[in-house]
Amino acid sequence: MNKDNASRDLSGRPIGSAPCTVNWILFDFGGVVAEEGFLNGLSQLAENQNLDPEVVTTAGVELVFQTGFTIGRGREDEFWEALRRQTGLSGQDTEFREVILSQFVLRPWMLDLVRSLKDQGMRCAMLSDQVDWLDRLNERFGFFRAFDRVYNSFHMGKSKREPEVFQHVAADLATPPEGILFIDDSRGNVRRAEEQGWQTILYTDRESFFRELDRFCPDLVHEPPQ
Fold this sequence. Notes:
Layout: H1 3-6, E1 24-27, H2 37-48, H3 53-66, H4 76-87, H5 93-103, H6 108-119, E2 123-128, H7 133-141, E3 149-152, H8 153-156, H9 164-173, E4 180-184, H10 187-195, E5 199-202, H11 206-216
Parallel strand pairs: 1-2, 1-4, 2-3, 4-5
Helix pairs in contact: 2-3, 2-5, 3-4
């Protein structure tokens, strides 16, 4: 038997080279690494102006894609103007942006987990459908350095609504799909990743997340104290 083949698992990962059964773990940003700032921020803007939060958040989610802002093909001012027209929201773009950014509250325990995984040989990346606000947040808090790579729709020119993005990232990581674990709070994103052969965890809460992660990284990761 070929010695090299015998020393690798089914995903192609050298046995003993990392603490998990996958090659890479990819984390979503809003809703996983941080609180879901975009939806929470839109809801806050609506409440501040006595508008229906559901109407504003639904419109915001669609318009950020329709205007091309998510994938870097549309401008921020175009997005906000479209949202004003559709919802009756009033105010300045810069004020709106600051409300959104303020709602992206980092989860220190999640960043600690990423660092712990990396310390034990795991490779970790971020895969996010964010605009250039992600860069602005990193300038303030410096969380990019916790990851080996950062994939952002604004710079990639494609989003997680497109199955091709998962193919693109897997190719860039030079990793077979089954060697990637993807953590996201969107059922749609998780479903599309699974359709491309990725391993996934749908993030709903901290406790269930650690139970799910233990399936891929057994006896390694335990939920830290609250």
